[in-house]
Amino acid sequence: MGYLVTTPIFYVNAAPHLGHAYSTIVADVLARHHRQRGDDVFFLTGTDEHGEPVANVAAERGITPQELVDENAPRFQAMGPVLESSNDFFIRTSDPRHKAVVQEILTTVKEEGWVYEGRYEGWYCPKCADFKTETEIAEGNTCPIHGIALLRESETNWFFKLSAFQERLEQLYADRPDWVVPQSRRNEALAFIKGGLQDVSLSRNAITWGVEVPWDLEHVFYVWWDALLNYVTALRFGREGEDLTTSHWPATHVIGKDILKFHTIYWPALLMAAGMEVPTRVMVGGFLLVDGAKMSKSKGNVLDPFEAIEQYGADAVRFYLLREVAFGSDGSVSLDGLKLRYESELANDFGNLASRSTAMVRRYRGAVVPDVAVDASVAAEFDGLPDTVATMLDGGQISQALETIWERVRRLNRFVEEQAPWTLAKAEKAADEDPEAAARATAELDRVLRTLVEGVRSLAVLLHPWLPASTVVLLDALGAPELSWAGAELGTGAAGAVGELAPLFPKDRAAA
Ligand code: MSP
């Protein structure tokens, strides 16, 4: 089955920061998970290169917009591999192939009667590239997101008849209550729609940096239409020699809460106008905060993903962000917080569990896992876990899914302490004194070791989307490299030979 997952495409007016990395990591978790399920995944990300946010910064720096995007787009492109992002394509909206499809689709929308020429008069935020409605304006005519003064714009534009989609949008929200998650964001979008939709500019003539309107060359398309359309244009050329539109559309979109209106109101309306299906789901994340404020270039409080990863590795940064900040809510992040979770959860809870389990099999059983049944009480607590996790991920409950798995990490750690395999190992050696007790200890130790190694294997498969590099190392050491979701269930792994395992999350990394 085709599965398309997308990140927002990033404005290339500044360098990438952890706030950008966040959407990429969430989408990558979904992409990897769906590959494990056997889906034909197309994971799309890229850069949004037109419009005022880019043109203004280029003007400030005295370079052309093209020079600016050519300088910055590679920095976003470079972020992918560093994050272990498995994106299948990276679209740049300055790509002529993208521009041609934007022109084609928006011409269809016009031919279908959804476009007219009119005059725009109102408030505009050049950083959001957003025409603000009365309810979206903060005190003193400022932007509630950027805090800057809004501009009074007045120009002749081509308009999109958004208001004509009022009822169909309301119906969409009624028919599919979870097409936007979490619920709070869905309710926010619906309230905006119920407040009454106004038509919105389709083109601008005040700026020139954009995709030309083919029927009126004095205009470029308003950057948001050009940007949103990346999600479908890339399907035409993102995979060599194929058109993925039929096999992969509609998409699952991962976005931040500041771009909710565009994705949950403008975008489905445009798709309806173009005769296309609306997205499967829009998953809306909150903001990463630093000392209580949104991490952003303009606030000067950004954390550099490249630096954090250099020290702790991509797995740790991915894990930290998704664990620290419940997806959908805002949450504070810091390098101290990263260090803390690295040490307590990755190094101690999971890394140590993996090291101990493999080391004990090597010490007590000559590196071969005993071929016995797993412990019944542990099995009961792992039962159905892959289905639960899959359902949570489909519903956008990214952090809850991780917590559900982590409860089992903690469960196995308790299991080691309760069962004290080192005591069983001593008892089985004392066969001279009490052969019966020794035989019992042998059977118990077999069960404990098998449960631990099989538990760690199942956890590694489940955790793979969050910790792609270390879980592969671990599964290789367990002699069970298979990642498929069918093998995520506890007890489905074979009892084989176990190799040596170096610490997955070395403590000295955090000490540096
Ligand atoms: N170009 C538009 C998106 C077009 S999608 C068709 C845009 N770009 S952006 O670079 O400003 O932001 C990209 C994404 O990063 C947005 O989803 C935004 O919410 C997210 N983030 C930027 N800073 C963030 C945080 N501090 N925390 C979490 N996400 C944040 O908007």
From TrEMBL:
Coiled coil: none annotated. The keyword Transcription does not apply. It is an enzyme of class 6 (ligase). Keywords: Aminoacyl-tRNA synthetase, ATP-binding, Ligase, Nucleotide-binding, Protein biosynthesis. GO terms for molecular function: ATP binding; methionine-tRNA ligase activity. Residues 3-145, 147-357 form the Methionyl/Leucyl tRNA synthetase domain. One of its GO terms (biological process) is methionyl-tRNA aminoacylation. Its EC number is 6.1.1.10. Pfam families: tRNA-synt_1g. InterPro entries: Anticodon_Met, Met-tRNA_synth_2, Methionyl/Leucyl_tRNA_Synth, MetRS_core, Rossmann-like_a/b/a_fold, tRNAsynth_Ia_anticodon-bd. PANTHER family: METHIONINE--TRNA LIGASE, MITOCHONDRIAL (PTHR43326:SF1), METHIONYL-TRNA SYNTHETASE (PTHR43326). This is methionine--tRNA ligase.
